């Protein structure tokens, strides 16, 4: 008997058995689903994609790379393959699609996505200008060989998934993970560089698709999160970054399952924190939320999905004339390489295209879920807008799918300017920035494909994923656990002191005085990114000054002042630290720490207690309690206070939060540290 016929008969018998077994099996929800993963780690040296500053082929391997595939359906199966790579250009997608046609998977039914790890080999056709003019013939050959190798392995993953198909039930849920932050730092409404913009839009949604076998065991997982896969940073080593760690963690939590991790509209979203260990932590955060979601209520889906798609033309501004490119050619670097490419197009066709061919694809699981697949590096505004104009409770948006034309900016990003709007176009061999009409072109195409069924509902609530929540609640919960635990003798002493000081503590800051302090944004006592004034130990004598609120005409006994701030860059060279001045006179010295601490002046009249409530490997933020004994206020009943650097040539810093709201915070702190007494 031919294998196909026996396979169909087995499936029919399986379905019949489950229909007899009971109504709760809901036979209509059973779908043939297969998953597989294949190792795509390079076997030899090859240049990596993601960072233009790299100059050599990779120097080692941190973690393996994978091609992960999921196939759904029987007669006209749909397939998705997610590659651990910075991006898969259209040429690679076409080559893979051509191979799969003979196996029953049409190009229309195929999605090829990338995790956007910046630690994987560059594929032929990806961001052409990045390595243009900088590779030897041997390096070009190795890039081409790896590209073919990756296509071979993606094909193998899809074919294995086809072979592995079995009847399963699909379900999905939508959760939340918070490590992505808007990376576009603004100054007067214009792009000023990369960093962390607390008030910028984000997409913290984590949609998850799962497939369970007849025994209820999870066999397939697919999660999606909108964030650059750059936690590891520019180290010139192969690895999957946080997405790779997420897949590894999910597969640990669900033995026997194969997981896929795709990326949402996170082109202007970066991970908060960096390094290999932080990448593993980010991946674990994804897996933890997936595990939580699948243990709670999920929505069953009927598969396979209905597929639709189209190509649209995204408008660019009018390309520069030949004379511009000839002038650019006289320069060097990436602009020189872009000019060569543009002049080659002019020589070949007489013009430079003012549009970008752009694929959009949608998978619909009945009326329960619409999956949207967008090409390129799509900024978060597209997710924000589509979640506003469609029913976000039934919407999944993936980017970096099917092609890599470059960044896809929104009207906001184009108005603000900067990397995602302008210079990134050079890397992707685009002649200039997009016309602002690009946003409507993409959004309208998506809305047309998903159809009216997924329009926003009357009275629909705003999606909760697009602003950063405060870390205050988690911080005070963490402080409560710390206060109830067995701590060191020194920490217990500080904790007891804080408990004594809180009831009578008053705000320390009435107004800031002219000083050497700088303005910045950094993590406060709760790990929130806020405005601050700060000084560093770069120059001796650098001073931060402020004045307390009006206290009393003549303070007798002691008074405790409280403010929030922080100290940091502990690994920087240690110097003389900082000195605290009261009324112009030096009172005591202190320095950077990430632990609860207490400093007392020689005459014991001044005491500074620091309770850090947020820490990183370098910095801390928390509450400062300044107790003064027999201090004499000025004629206005206030006290002049200052902190001065005693060192030089060190990046160690001291900061005060611009917004204090001490009384409210002290009430919460008091509740936390007395909760379990």
Topology:
Elements: H1 3-21, E1 30-39, E2 66-72, E3 78-83, H2 90-100, E4 110-114, H3 128-131, H4 137-163, E5 166-176, E6 180-182, E7 184-187, E8 190-194, E9 205-212, E10 218-225, H5 241-253, E11 258-263, E12 269-271, H6 276-295, E13 299-301, E14 306-315, H7 322-329, H8 333-349, E15 355-365, E16 369-374, E17 377-378, H9 381-389, E18 395-398, E19 407-408, H10 411-416, H11 424-427, H12 438-450, H13 472-484, H14 489-501, E20 506-507, E21 511-512, E22 518-523, E23 529-536, E24 543-547, E25 558-568, E26 578-582, E27 585-590, E28 597-600, E29 606-615, E30 620-629, E31 640-645, E32 653-657, H15 662-674
Parallel strand pairs: 3-4, 10-11, 16-18, 17-19, 20-25
Antiparallel strand pairs: 1-2, 1-5, 2-3, 5-9, 5-13, 6-12, 7-8, 9-10, 14-15, 15-16, 21-24, 22-23, 23-32, 24-31, 25-30, 25-32, 26-27, 26-31, 28-29, 29-30
Helix pairs in contact: 2-4, 5-6, 7-8, 13-15
Describe this structure as you would to a colleague:
It contains 15 helices and 32 strands. By secondary structure, it is an alpha+beta fold. It has two domains: 22-318 and 354-454, no CATH class; 472-674, Jelly Rolls (Sandwich). Strands 1, 2, 3, 4, 5, 9, 10, 11 and 13 form a nine-stranded mixed β-sheet that branches. A hairpin with a 3-residue loop joins β15 and β16. 47% of the residues are buried.
Provide the descriptors you would attach to this structure in a database record.
677 residues; alpha+beta; 2 domains; 8-stranded mixed beta sheet; 32 strands; disordered N terminus
């Amino acid at each position: 008997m031919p294998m196909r016929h026996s396979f169909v008969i087995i499936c029919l018998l399986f379905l019949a058995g489950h229909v007899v077994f009971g109504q709760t099996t809901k036979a209509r929800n059973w779908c043939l689903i297969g998953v597989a993963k294949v190792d795509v780690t390079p076997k030899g040296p090859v240049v990596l994609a993601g960072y233009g500053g790299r100059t050599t082929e990779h120097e080692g391997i941190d973690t393996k790379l994978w091609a992960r595939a999921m196939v759904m359906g029987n007669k006209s199966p749909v397939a998705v393959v997610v590659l651990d790579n910075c991006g898969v250009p259209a040429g690679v997608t076409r080559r893979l699609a051509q191979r799969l046609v003979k196996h029953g998977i049409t190009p229309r039914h195929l999605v090829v996505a990338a995790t956007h790890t910046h630690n994987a080999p560059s594929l032929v056709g990806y961001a052409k200008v990045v390595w243009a003019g900088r590779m030897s013939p041997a390096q070009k050959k190795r890039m081409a060989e790896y590209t073919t190798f990756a296509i071979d392995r993606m094909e193998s993953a899809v074919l294995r998934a086809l072979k592995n198909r079995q009847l399963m039930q699909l379900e999905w849920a939508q959760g939340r993970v918070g490590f992505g932050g808007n990376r576009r730092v603004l100054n007067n409404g214009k792009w000023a560089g990369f960093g962390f913009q607390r008030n910028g839009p984000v997409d913290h949604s984590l949609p998850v698709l799962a497939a369970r076998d007849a025994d209820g065991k999870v066999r397939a997982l697919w999660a999606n999160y909108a964030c650059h896969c750059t936690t590891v940073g520019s180290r010139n080593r192969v690895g999957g970054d946080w997405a790779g760690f997420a897949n590894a963690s999910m597969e640990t939590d669900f033995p026997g399952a194969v997981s896929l991790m795709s990326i949402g509209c996170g082109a202007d979203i970066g991970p908060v924190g960096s390094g290999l260990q932080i990448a593993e932590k980010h991946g674990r955060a994804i897996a933890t939320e997936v595990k939580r979601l699948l243990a709670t209520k999920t929505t069953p889906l009927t598969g396979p999905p209905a597929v639709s798609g189209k190509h649209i033309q995204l408008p660019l501004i009018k390309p520069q004339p030949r004379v511009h490119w000839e002038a650019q050619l006289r320069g060097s670097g990436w602009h020189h390489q872009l000019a060569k490419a543009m002049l080659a197009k002019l020589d070949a066709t007489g013009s430079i295209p003012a549009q970008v061919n752009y694929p959009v694809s949608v998978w619909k699981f009945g009326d329960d879920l619409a999956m949207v697949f967008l090409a390129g590096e799509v900024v978060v505004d597209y997710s924000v807008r589509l979640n506003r104009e469609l029913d976000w409770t039934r919407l999944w948006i993936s980017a970096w799918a099917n092609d890599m034309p470059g960044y896809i900016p929104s009207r906001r990003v184009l108005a603000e300017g900067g990397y995602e709007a302008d210079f990134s176009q050079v890397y992707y061999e685009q002649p200039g920035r997009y016309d602002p009409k690009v946003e409507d072109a993409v959004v309208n195409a998506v809305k047309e494909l998903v159809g009216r069924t997924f329009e926003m509902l009357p009275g629909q609530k705003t999606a909760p994923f697009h602003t950063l929540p405060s870390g205050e609640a988690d911080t005070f919960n963490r402080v409560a656990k710390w206060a109830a635990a067995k701590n060191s003798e020194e920490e217990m002493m500080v904790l007891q002191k804080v408990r004594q000081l809180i009831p009578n503590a008053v705000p320390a800051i009435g107004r800031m005085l002219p000083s050497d302090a700088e303005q910045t944004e950094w993590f406060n006592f709760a790990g929130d990114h806020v405005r601050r004034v700060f000084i560093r130990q770069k120059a001796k004598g650098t001073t931060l000054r402020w004045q307390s609120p009006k206290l009393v005409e003549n303070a007798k006994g002691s008074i405790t002042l409280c403010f929030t701030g922080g100290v940091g860059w502990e690994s920087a060279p240690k110097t003389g630290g900082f000195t605290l001045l009261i009324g112009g006179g030096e009172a005591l010295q202190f320095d950077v720490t990430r632990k609860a601490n207490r400093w007392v002046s020689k005459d014991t009249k001044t005491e500074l207690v620091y309770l850090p409530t947020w820490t990183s490997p370098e910095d801390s933020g928390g509450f400062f309690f300044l107790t003064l004994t027999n201090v004499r206020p000025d004629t206005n009943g206030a006290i002049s206070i200052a902190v001065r650097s005693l060192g030089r040539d060190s990046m160690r810093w001291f900061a005060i939060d611009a917004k204090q709201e001490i009384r409210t915070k002290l009430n919460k702190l008091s509740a936390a540290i007395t909760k379990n007494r």
